[in-house]
Design brief:
Four copies of one chain form a homotetramer. The first copy, chain A, has 345 residues and is an alpha/beta fold. The first copy, chain A, has eleven helices and 14 strands. In chain A, the strands form two sheets. Chain A has a seven-stranded parallel sheet with strand order 3-2-1-4-5-7-6, sandwiched between helices. In chain A, helix 1 (14-24) crosses helix 11. The first copy, chain A, is globular, with a radius of gyration of 20 Å. Chain A binds chain C through residues 14, 175-177, 181, 183-185, 187-190, 192-194, 233-235, and chain C through 14, 175-177, 181, 183-185, 187-190, 192-194, 233-235.
């Protein structure tokens, strides 16, 4: 057997909860330790009854594992990660604390001085579709933000190939679980139900990730990205609609649309979780699965690229992507433990 | 009392249902006749039990009224309207059949030859915020589409004043009632719940309305509009996020954002149902009311205008706007019968 | 004009919010003062943007009014009410603090010693359908709990007429707004959405109200009531399913079912907000309105009475009923300001 | 490998869709043939994009398999099943057509003359928790109705042990997917959202199953069952609240409640999908899984038994239970392919 022992720091948030579900059904690793802040000392399946098959008690400190997931909030996560790395563990950090390369951006976007700027270069941005081999060799993987995952996957092929100009609009619609498990009026059922709202109009924290990655894909012209996230009344799901002018490499007609599909399929030919489709996807097609569905097309009237991507924000947008990264870090097939289909309807 | 008698053609669709609710509480008109296709002969409050206060039987033909609302589907509505006009009635048509000025567009967008092209010029586009006096003098008012209402109101001040360039992106999120009451897999609860999807990527029928009206507001540069509607899992509500480059008349900074708010408030100073606000609105703030909330702002990083508008698609996006138009056509104060606040939460 | 001035204590909870909406559209009273705990000093329409038509600032203390609504939580409300009565005001208390006649029950059910037991007899239980004249003469009205309203209205005619035996089961399904606006994991969108749960199996606080009122309607046999409340994923609405054995006064057949309807209609003939119907009601038929729909029927196989009632928990279950009580206390027609139809769908 | 080939008749309804998901992830069988009425000839993952991992075309006739699931509607299913049995296949029928032993009941409850009354005795009622060995030996298993599953599992231990009297009330709350995939106004999103309703008050078709099985568990006293199903606005989930008088074998106090839990746990000690818990369950704890959570307790005030059960109506209430039955019929461990945890939140 000799399964790899893995652990979760802060199992009681939604990313942690979902990690526990996915790791429990993983055939090659075994979840042996979970920590939680206020719930330490309680049985995991008492705090989270749907995890009734997992026989673990929530601990204050992580036990003996080979790889750890940190599902702590940003800033606090960095401290945990530093300590885990010192113990020699492999780490997947689901927070934002190692996603940006420029330490100064943490002050600007997150309001704290990064405690370990030297680690930022070592950390690999855990979007396996772009950095498969680097993830495989990494000790520390920074799991991308949910919005960033949906946006970068939607745009990467077009940007990389220079199909689009600099003016990019990203309009995202997320389920409420994306806002986390912390209680607030914003996530109160009666306030969030039957409601749609835009937020973070002055700049969402996933924007620097998106911009940095798009710029790495094609530095010129430097992308000028407007990103507006929205909350929609559902638990899971993230749909991203991206708009950009076409540069002329594909034409804004039926033929161009077909070329786009082909180009996207080629770009993602080794990516088992990406499905490029020729019709508009529904977030529901990805519910509970690690898939990201992408539909690139052209607006014939205006000569623009439109790309729609869909994913489950807690799976491909968080815990599933973290397991995908873990698989690569452990030398396992990328899809191990992630093959289950979406639950529909 | 001498209240004006009004009637509704096709009361059993959602626009018709909502008209019945609003007209019943209107102090200056009386709803005396309603028609419905399959339900003719049945009591209105048996078919629609929430209308228990209205003592009417659904008829096959409209009775004696002075003003009629047609809530028929497009193409069928035109025939009804022609006949109503011949009877000398004032008419508010909630279908698309008299919204476009160019008869040829009906072939292109709706797939039928318009039966009365000569009426298209006489019909007034029923967006009172732009055409108050014309609506007041009209015999036939074409009530705007829900998406068109949200989009045009969001952009009109900026376009009119030349604050924006031609490249306009309109990303709309609508509740499911916008798709009507006809049953389909698309509106099946189990399919639409916990789901977001984009649709009509090859061109939604509200696009020609939007483009035509923006062009009338400022012919040069001719607007190049990409419009993508989305369905989100809620019954009512329509949030529109509009993006456009700024031309330099307002600056992409705090001062520019404040000037924008001021300019929008000035533009809508006589519009009782428009609230220009300095924070992102929620669709829920308009639930059941005729308000349209608008939040214009700037994206400082990219120099773009972002405008968010919210409304209830069945009220300001359909029946409420129709009553607002009726008020003007009858010489009543614009807000008569439409003063109730949103129901929240 | 000389409208009566009224005020709301704790306007920022859901009952307070709904009171503000209803009082604003009331033609005979004027809302002149509202208080709120943390929000004092802020404009009402800034804290609650849907109330954009109300020009009031939230105060720390109630201003000069003739009648006040207390929407404080239990225990705290009693203190407010005592002070309001001392000022000579008429009071509608939406908390539980004056609903029970036996002061000892407050210790048992609410865990505090009642500060003014002498007021319990003076307070009138504000179910106008049972106590219309007493409400009209009262200085202090204790507005019933939402569950109690649905349950008592469903059972009152049958119990009063001795149609049923003592064994009563009340199974209620409430929207999430019934749990209030205070944030908690229980009302977190992601936890409450796509979920149904039963709670308070060891005894919900509305049970003593229900039992006491049923016993007053018919002391023998003393009712033996099991009451289980459930939370269902919607914002508003309360459906109560009540079961009891028939005693033989009506027969468990078609004829008995028709007699039941007739008997219920007769019982409620003077109650403008009660509609007794011969088909199962939907909570949606009452959304935003003060109606309570009741469908009594028989189970032919088992000889049991089944009664379904539906209401909007924030209107007839709270704020609407409070306004109905206010109308009676001020000598106004019971329906004043409460005539608007349900918003559907 | 030599996996058993299995097929699904009518894969496009919700039970069929869910069977496809579960069978695809089953390690010991392989789904080789699926049929569908209108969709024959189309790729399965085109009609149902979430099944993108399944490489099958929908057929008009079932191919070569060893075991078939019929997910046809009642009456039509019987014809299919007869033909499948004649081919020598093992069959799990998800319709009602072989659930009742008395052919005459099909006329009364389903309005058709049963075409093969002789098969009713041979068919095994597929509630493995009661009929494990019989299911294992059966050629034809009649998969129970979703409501019947929740109700019988909630009551079986108490009824079997004679803890309860004859007067049983079953109040069930089901998600909308329980009403199937066929479009109708009842399941239209805008009608079903923000709504709860009771239905089938004159007798739901799952009642005869429930009554028959309870009577088999303990013939005396013959159970007198009132069953009222409700629709609540969620896609999946079924919560059943059952009430019955206690006979005195357990006492209505803390000690009795603990004995109940113990007795239930003992009754279900060999049932891997039943979790007897000492707190009220949430349907969400079972979302997507084959678990049934049961919480039996006592109402101390009235001496009644209250039992709450929760399950996913499409899994333990339909497709998951069918796979559980298949496992037993094929001599596999009961839990094979059904170990995944609920997806939460």
């Amino acid at each position: 057997m000799n399964k790899t022992k893995v652990g979760i720091i802060n199992v009681t948030g939604y990313a942690g909860v979902e990690l526990a579900r996915l790791l429990h059904q993983h055939p090659e690793v075994v979840l042996t330790s979970v920590t939680g802040r206020s719930a330490a000392g309680q049985r995991l399946d008492r705090v989270l009854p749907h995890l009734s098959g997992i026989d673990l008690t929530i601990e204050a400190e992580l036990g003996d594992v080979e790889l750890a997931f940190s599902a702590m909030p940003h800033k606090e996560s960095a401290q945990e990660v530093i300590s885990l790395l010192e113990r020699g563990l492999k780490v997947v950090d689901l927070s934002a604390d190692f996603r940006l390369k420029d330490a100064g951006e943490y002050q600007a976007w997150y309001g704290f001085t990064h405690p370990a700027p030297e680690l930022l270069e070592r950390a690999v941005y855990g979007l396996a579709e772009l950095y498969r081999s680097q993830v495989g060799a990494a000790q520390l993987v920074a799991n991308p933000g949910c919005y960033a995952t949906g946006a970068i996957l939607a745009l990467a092929p077009a940007v990389k190939e220079g199909l689009t100009g600099a003016d990019i609009i990203i309009d995202s619609k997320s389920g409420i679980s994306g806002a986390g498990r912390t209680v607030s009026l914003k996530t109160h059922y009666s306030e969030a139900n039957e409601d749609v709202t835009a937020y973070a109009l002055s700049g969402h924290r996933h924007l620097p990730e998106i911009t940095a990655e798009l710029e790495l894909l094609r530095p010129q012209p430097s992308p000028s990205v407007t990103f507006v996230p929205h909350l929609v009344p559902m638990t899971r799901g993230l749909l991203t609609t991206a708009y950009a002018p076409l540069t002329g490499k594909v034409s804004p007609d039926k033929k161009g649309a077909e070329e786009l599909i082909k180009l996207y399929r080629d770009f993602y030919k080794d990516a088992p979780f990406i499905k490029v489709i020729d019709f508009p996807p529904h977030t529901k097609y990805t519910w509970g699965s690690n898939l990201c569905l992408i539909h690139p097309t052209v607006d014939r009237r205006t000569g623009r690229l439109i790309v729609i991507s869909c994913l489950d924000n807690l799976v491909k947008g968080a815990a599933g992507q973290a397991v995908q990264n873990m698989n690569l870090m452990l030398g396992l097939p990328e899809t191990t433990g992630l093959e289950t289909l979406a639950v529909y309807p």
